[in-house]
Specification:
Length: 127
């Protein structure tokens, strides 16, 4: 059984799909091509780092995607911002274990959390 706390008013999979397509369309217009989940995680990480865009090393790109995942899951109280290090990188700590989920459920959680994030950023509306 799929269990996670929902913050949004998205009550079914069809609404989630519609909102996801809306987000991809808006992001495609801004980026010139349709992003995948990895690209969106990278963009969220860059946004949360707050240093602006620059060339990132491979390790930094992985760190940015991890930062984005922590930020997204903090919406559901799985992570909490611990602080910022001397180089300005935010650090999160796990506050509770995620429930067991298969890959499809993990994907749905990421999609839903991204929709909430981009709604809070004013990119889309979630009704």
């Amino acid at each position: 059984m799929f269990i996670f706390v929902t913050i949004m008013d998205i009550s079914d999979l069809n609404t989630l799909k519609i909102k996801w397509k809306e987000l991809l369309k808006k992001m495609s217009e801004q980026l010139g091509e349709e992003p995948d989940i990895q690209a969106l995680l990278f963009l969220i990480g860059v946004q949360e780092l707050g240093h602006g865009y620059r060339k990132f090393t491979r390790d930094e790109k992985q760190d940015l995607m991890h930062l984005a995942t922590c930020k997204l899951l903090s919406q559901y109280k799985y992570y909490e911002l611990e602080g910022v290090d001397a180089e300005g990188w935010p650090h999160y700590r796990l506050t509770q274990k995620l429930p067991p989920m298969n890959l499809k459920e993990q994907n749905l959680l990421l999609l839903q959390s991204m929709l909430q994030y981009f709604a809070e950023q004013g990119v889309i509306t979630v009704e």
